[in-house]
Amino acid sequence: MITLTGKKVSEGIVIGRLVFFNRGEREVRRIYVEDAEKELVRFQKARVRTAEELQELCEESAGELGETNAMIFEVQQMVIEDDAFLNQVVRIITEQKLNAEYAVRESAREFLKTCGARPESYVRGHEADVHDVVARILRILSRGRKDRMIMDEPFIMAARDLYPSEAVRLDKTKVLGFVTMYGSINSHTAVLARTKGIPSVIGLGEALKKDYEGKMVIIDGFDGKLYIEPDQTTMEKMKQKKQQHMQKVETLERLKGKENITQSGQKIEVCANIGSREDIERVLRSDAGGIGLFRSEFLYMETPGRLPTEEQQFQVYRLAAEAMGAKKVVIRTADLGGDKMPEGMEIQGEANPMIGYRGIRISLDKREMFKTQLRAILRASAFGNLQVMFPMITSIEEVTEAKKVLERAKAELKEEKTAYDENIRVGVMIETPAAVMISGELAREVDFFSIGTNDLTQHTLAMDRTNRKLTGFYNPYHPALIKMIRIVANNVHLEGKHISICGDLAADTDMTETFLQMGIDELSVAPGKVLPLRKKIREIR
Ligand code: PEP
Ligand code: MG
């Protein structure tokens, strides 16, 4: 038996075979193919699909980003129709009998070298577009390959690291848990694991070897351990630990239907955080008082290369609204950027993505995309108690601008005679020191605040939450943070408005008493943390 120790991200014990995740476009291998004709068909299908995706993107973007930006996709279309490029791919597949991925990558290199050198070539100055379109073809080719990798039997996934855009697509019926070599416990991949309740351990380093592929392993998410080929004693011990945990969960079930009230009678709301349609079921089982944070940006990552349409978003928000009945559902508008970029929308050349083009900045820059989301939220607001919240706010102007787009969306719906909640409540995330400092003024603009302690810690301490080297420094208990939360709570209450905390600190039961003393109105946590938090609240005197 081999024991590896990493950082615990999400609790639970799971047993299964280890399967390594290969990120298609990163690892292009040179593979000999028996049937070149079949490989050629595979390539042609991927090329047709690429053309279709580009066409869709081009149409979607023409209105939204302007004709100039839509041209980018036209250049990419030209590349996949270019004989110089295509003939080379076909030659490598048929003459050298090599796989399509390798043929595409090699042909692109050759194409850039020859055509890119010619001054009159359309490729000149568009090298990044060639890389983009190649990445798209490789991604499409890898979709088929990934399906083949998925086994019938559920397994434990191992990876070097996982992007949030990959973690969001993990199929919980197949992936029992995951372990990685690198990564940070504060990243959105970790947040997703906790939200979905997928046991996981990260930061196992180089000790997590590819040789372990297919071996039986146990993840102990409570202690941050991975046991490879566990011996009988460990197996028994882990099964027992799992049993004990299940018993604890069963005891917690008795708290369902009970109030979140301290022994001295102070009440606080406990809501749940979600990131997808699948998480709604977990919220219902958790007996949360509502959905305090719907991280809607994850909807933008479910289908690589494609953003969700108004209709698709509407269906998900409506489902959440109807499932929760009278209970509230707070939809945070897309907090894209940072470590949350959908595949195909990645931004090149950002030195500091966490303080870069993200959150409300992208929404206000791409107003059509923003309005599409607001229309979907508004339409769904006719089916339940929906509220809308803007992320990464730093100024009053951002809020007034965002509200203008909301009003425009309302006006359109009114004109179309589509039902929506005219009085939908509007809130902001408090995630930046700037928002803390102007929280008094901000409170006059909105109905509620939700403090995102993950980002607030990152921005207050000037520490990238995804930087694994900073794990020992990143301190959400820093006195500066606690003071900030207190300031915000006081300011918002002076205006008679509602305040919640939805960052990971909300679930930390060592902090519950402090938050109650501050008069925080609501804590919003991963669904699996609702009942443990209720238990803690009820024990406080
Ligand atoms: C936060 O920053 O604390 C938060 C809740 O938002 P996210 O973790 O999605 O950035
Ligand atoms: Mg945040």
TrEMBL record:
Gene Ontology molecular function, alphabetical: kinase activity; metal ion binding; phosphoenolpyruvate-protein phosphotransferase activity
Protein origin, superkingdom: Bacteria
Sequence positions that bind phosphoenolpyruvate: 295, 332, 454-455, 465
Chain segments annotated as transmembrane: none
Protein transport among keywords: no
Enzyme Commission no: 2.7.3.9
Keywords attached to this entry: Coiled coil, Cytoplasm, Kinase, Magnesium, Metal-binding, Phosphotransferase system, Sugar transport, Transferase, Transport
Required cofactor(s): Mg(2+)
Limits of the PEP-utilising enzyme C-terminal domain: 252-540
Major subcellular site: cytoplasm
NCBIfam families reported for this sequence: PTS_I_fam
Family per similarity comment: Belongs to the PEP-utilizing enzyme family.
Record's function text: General (non sugar-specific) component of the phosphoenolpyruvate-dependent sugar phosphotransferase system (sugar PTS). This major carbohydrate active-transport system catalyzes the phosphorylation of incoming sugar substrates concomitantly with their translocation across the cell membrane. Enzyme I transfers the phosphoryl group from phosphoenolpyruvate (PEP) to the phosphoryl carrier protein (HPr).
Entry protein name: Phosphoenolpyruvate-protein phosphotransferase
Origin organism lineage: Bacteria, Bacillati, Bacillota, Clostridia, Eubacteriales
